[in-house]
Specification:
This protein has 346 residues and is an alpha/beta fold. The protein contains eleven helices and eight strands. An eight-stranded mixed sheet has the order 3-2-1-4-6-5-7-8, sandwiched between helices. The protein starts with 10 loop residues before the first helix and ends in a 10-residue tail after the last helix.
C-alpha cells in the first residue's frame, strides 16, 4: 500500500473495516477480540521507524474492594510511559471488576473472565496487520502483576519488569534482537520471568495464537512450571519460536528466573544478547532440572508441536552453547546439576 496523503472520510471506520478484512483473510478473526485502534487508516513501512510503540496492558481486578490498591499499581506502571517513545493510548484488556478511574485517552476492552492470553492476543492481532508486520514496528506487553496476589515479591518483580519493558534501551534494541526485557532465562523453558517485554512485530507475527491453551492445542500439563505448558504457556509464548532473538538489560547474575534475586529499581541497564550467562548459571538447585540433551530434545518437541520445525540450525539462540559445545555429551548428573558445572563457552 502507498500512502498518498489524502485524508479519508471517517478514517477510524475505514481502519476498522480494513482491520476486520485483513484478519478474516488471515483466518484468525475472532468476534470477541477487539480491533486495534489507530489514527491512520494506512501506514506505510517507510514511517514504521517513526511510529510510536503500542502498549498492551492486561489488567485484572477481583472486586471493588481491590480497586484503590490496583489503581496504585496502574498509576505506578503508567508513570514509566514516555510520550516521545510510546503511544500513550494504551490498549487495556480489563478482566474481572472494571476499574472506574481509567483515562479516556486509553482504549479499554472489558472481559468478565480471562487470563493473560487476552492482552497478548490483542498484541498478536496488532502485529499481524500488514501495516505492522515488519522489523521496525514494536509492541510492549505488560500486566498488573500483584493485583490478584498482593505480595511484596510480586511488587518487586512487577517494578523490575516494567522498568525494562518501557525503557528507552528496549525501545532502541539492536537489530540483532527481536525481544527485549529486564531478564531472559532459558531455564526451565525460554521465557521472561514475570512476562513483561518489548518485541518486534515481524517476530510476534510468527507465533501461534496465545489462545491455543483454551483451544486445547497446548496441553494443560501438570508439570507446566518446568515445561512451559499449561498456564505457563503464557509466560513462554513470547520466546516460544526458535527464531526468538532475546536481549536483556540486567547484568547481575543473582537473578536468573523465578523470584530469586530480583533487583530493586532503578538498576543500571546494560543491553546484552541473551542468554548472557552459560547453561549452568541458570540451573536452580535440583529444581526443574535435566541434562542439556533432555533440554534440547524438549525444545525440539515443542518447536515441532507448535511450528512443525523438526531441526535447529545456527539461527537458534542457544545453538552455539548447546550444539557447538559439549553440553549434549554430558552424562554425569553431578556435572549438569551444577556441582561440577563449568563454563564450557570459554
Amino acid at each position: 500500500l502507498i500512502s498518498i496523503g489524502i485524508e479519508l472520510p471517517n478514517s477510524n471506520l475505514v481502519h476498522r473495516i480494513l482491520t476486520r478484512v485483513s484478519t478474516q483473510l488471515d483466518g484468525t478473526y475472532d468476534d470477541d477480540a477487539s480491533l486495534s485502534s489507530s489514527s491512520n487508516a494506512i501506514i506505510t513501512n517507510t514511517n514504521a521507524k517513526n511510529k510510536k510503540i503500542k502498549i498492551f496492558y492486561n489488567l485484572y481486578i477481583s472486586s471493588a474492594a481491590d480497586e484503590e490498591r490496583v489503581q496504585k499499581i496502574v498509576d505506578e506502571q503508567f508513570a514509566h510511559l514516555n510520550p516521545k517513545l510510546h503511544d500513550v493510548n494504551v490498549s487495556i484488556s480489563s478482566i474481572g471488576y472494571q476499574l472506574q478511574n481509567i483515562s479516556h485517552n486509553h482504549t479499554v476492552q472489558h472481559h468478565e473472565k480471562g487470563n493473560e492470553d487476552v492482552g497478548m492476543h490483542e498484541l498478536w492481532e496488532y502485529c499481524k496487520l500488514p501495516q505492522n508486520n515488519n522489523h521496525d514496528t514494536l509492541a510492549v506487553y505488560i500486566h498488573s502483576k500483584g493485583s490478584f496476589h498482593p505480595r511484596g515479591v510480586n511488587d518487586k518483580i512487577r517494578r523490575a519488569l516494567t522498568f525494562g519493558a518501557l525503557s528507552e534501551e528496549c525501545a532502541n534494541l539492536p537489530d540483532t534482537c527481536n525481544v527485549c526485557s529486564s531478564r531472559f532465562s532459558p531455564q526451565p523453558f525460554p521465557h521472561t520471568p514475570g512476562n513483561m517485554w518489548l518485541a518486534r512485530c515481524d517476530y510476534i507475527a510468527k507465533l501461534r495464537d496465545p489462545f491455543l491453551l483454551k483451544q486445547g492445542v497446548v496441553p494443560d500439563h501438570k508439570n507446566g512450571w518446568c515445561t512451559g505448558l499449561g498456564r505457563y504457556y503464557f509466560e513462554h509464548w513470547s520466546h516460544s519460536h526458535p527464531h526468538a532473538a532475546p536481549c536483556d538489560l540486567y547484568a547481575g547474575g543473582e537473578w536468573t528466573w523465578d523470584y530469586f534475586g530480583i533487583p530493586q529499581i532503578p538498576f543500571e541497564k546494560k543491553m546484552a544478547k541473551a542468554p548472557r550467562f552459560n547453561f549452568c548459571h541458570y540451573l536452580h538447585d535440583r529444581v526443574c532440572k535435566g541434562p542439556p540433551k533432555t533440554y534440547y530434545e524438549n525444545r525440539l518437541w515443542y518447536y515441532d508441536m507448535l511450528f512443525g520445525i523438526k531441526d535447529l540450525d545456527e539461527s537458534w539462540w542457544y545453538y552455539e552453547e548447546i550444539l557447538q559445545q559439549k553440553f549434549l555429551n554430558m552424562t554425569d548428573p553431578e556435572e549438569w546439576y551444577g556441582f561440577k558445572c563449568v563454563d564450557h563457552s570459554k
